[in-house]
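DATA SHEET
Item: assembly model
Revision: 1
Owner: S.N.
Input lines:
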Amino acid sequence: MGTQEIRYFQVGSHAVGNRLLDPGQRTVQSDPERANALTCGHRACQGCGEALGARYVVDAALRATAGRLVAVNATGCLEVFSTPYPETSWQLPWLHSLFGNAPAVATGVAAALRAQGREDVRVLAQGGDGGTVDIGFGCLSGMFERDDDVLYVCYDNQGYMNTGVQRSGATPPGARTATTEAVGDAPGAPFGQGKDVPRIAMAHGVRYVATATVADLRDLEAKVERAMEVRGARYLHVLVPCPLGWGSPAALTVRIARLATQTGLFPVYEARDGEVTGVTTIRRPAPVEEYLRPQKRFAHLFSHPSGPAALARIQEAADRNIRRYGLLGDGGPS
Amino acid sequence: MRRQIEGARGVAESVAACRPQVVCAYPITPQTHIVEGLGVLVGTGALAGCEFVNVESEFAAMSVAIGASAAGARAYTATASQGLLFMSEALYNASGLGLPVVMTVANRAIGAPINIWNDHSDAMSQRDSGWIQLYAETSQEAIDLHVQAFRLAEEMSVPVMVCMDGFVLTHAFEPLEVPSQEDVDAFLPPFTPRQVLDPAEPVSIGAMVGPEAFTEVRYLAFHRQREALGRIPEIAADFAAAFGRDSGGLLHTYRCEDAQTIVLAMGSVLGTLKDTVDALRDEGIPIGVVGLTSFRPFPMAAVRAAVGGARTLIVLERAFSVGVGGIVSADVHMAVAGLDQRHHTVIAGLGGRPVTRVSLRRMLLDAEAGRLEPLTFLDLDRDLIDRELARVRARPRSGPAAENILRDVGVVGARPH
Ligand SMILES: Cc1ncc(C[n+]2csc(CCOP(=O)(O)OP(=O)(O)O)c2C)c(N)n1
Ligand code: SF4
Ligand SMILES: [Mg+2]
């Protein structure tokens, strides 16, 4: 008979296209009136996950605040590719101060707005993983602990990309970076190091903590919107693949981000007041090899004698996440 | 009305009268009483409309001030010593962005060896940070300088550091007059920022600038400080007219008219210096004193005019550049280039060592007699130095120098070494 199977083009995400949704449920990006806060013409690499993530985050935050938003940016790729003098891609009030102080600068902006009785204007701070989990961590922890009215977004590409791909406290074990080269007996970044800042944020009792990736952009937008409904300190940790640093094809940014979640290596969840309140379960589980293989930073794991043991440890870490967060939807805190 | 209060308290009240909207506090001796005082004034509501933020470091303190100032609020903080160094990166950023933050530096030595007492090494280390640096001679002047500092900073869109000697000024109780709220309101207009983070008019502040315009952006900072050279005396004159007190300005001269020898210094040591000079004047020795208030911008012409007539010029410094000697001297010598003068640099009062009238008198008499070296460390205990140098020569593992010296002085128990 003349029937045709409906095909969804966002294969793997099980998402439906915007046109099939109620206008109220459509993505911010599908809205012709969207702010387009980070306009085209910036100088990010092709396939940059950070540029993609930041556009969705800032546009969603602008919609959630009806345009009354100020952004504070740490030094890093996002800052550098968006503002080479005399150009700027930012369509909202935007301030870059230093590498390690974005949370504190944002606190200052929020305090100033409060002192001026302009609390309708909200504050978004953003930085890379280096700016967030390493050099800016003291300021971040202070901002969390004081419960300052700031949404802090970390774009985690798992390394210091702007300075040429060095290891950060968010670089995963085994990954080759310029300071954890694929040489010696245990090539790549060491095992047993690194920090999990979303959980550290939860330990601060931060009101709203969420993780997200650029594989599920509607989820990312929704989390920004929910974060904006809350006053006080909030933290959003977004996994953003970096084709340059990860050695992955530019066209695979979204797919690799999705594989990070499907393997369990990057758990996607929400937490309120220190407790996990929602988990995005894995619909199509994948072994870690499937995620690691397309990335040149892990190439040595598939050729070096130490590779099998390393892969087993990475798989263990993924399995631990799956258990801890109930990522298979089988009894975890979803 | 003058009240018997602590210098720090006077500064806290004076800052409060300037109606800061964001005050960030992180404790370090001897600055603590200032921010503690402000905390109480905010807490009781005496200072209304102000957010008092207890931050986690001085780096955060300056960063919060940067964010607050960029969002259009009048921002203030205070620090000293290690704290000033800890915020150094943010200091350059505040001035580079042209944000008119005002900060008190309760001057204190820098470690190692750690030392909480007064000298000027902290502020001197930030000489090139792009901040205006004003040095108070007395607590009263510190109180007054803050009111002038906010006006200067906001007019020029440049951050201003008011430097006051730790303990000597911050912790001394004396009769002090804090300007009244009405008088400060009349003197200091509300803050109108040159640049502000405002959704109605979005701007990008802090964009990256490459070789094509970096020199120009930096030159403008230089230009603004040069303009400040003109405004500092005008604001001081306005202040004198409004409050009836001479404070601030570029520099003060004391008994310099016919002086053959002039000593230039900054901060509270000027009091002792003037007393010493008075005594020498009584003995017929023509000595004068120049107190420098504005170190950045450095008033080349005013310094040359003030000291140019002397045959001997002594710069008395509370800090020094290891490997060279004087810091202030370098600028002073540039100001007097080409004049026929003898120049001396005297490093004194490091880490809180008292600068006494006896020592100053001896040094000045040495200068009169032509016995003063070009570079002198006042009251340096040569014997202690020689003993430590001998130890270093005698054995490769001679131990930590500071501990060795303290043992010689008898401060540390006599563990054999
Ligand atoms: C105090 C300081 N240290 C180091 C740097 C150099 N630096 C600039 S950007 C950067 C890397 C940024 O890494 P990350 O925060 O992860 O952002 P990404 O570029 O990866 O997006 C570094 C190390 C700096 N600007 N300031
Ligand atoms: S290096 Fe990575 S993070 Fe930086 S612009 Fe390129 S893809 Fe984006
Ligand atoms: Mg990074």
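QC remark: Chain A has one domain: 19-325.
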